[in-house]
Amino acid sequence: MVVREDEFDSDMTTTLAVCLCQILISQFNNNIFPAEIDEESLEESIGTPLFVMLRFLSSTPENSPSRIPLLQLLGEMYMKQPRIGYHLLYFLKVG
Question: What does the DSSP 8-state code read for residue 5?
Answer without folding.
Answer: T
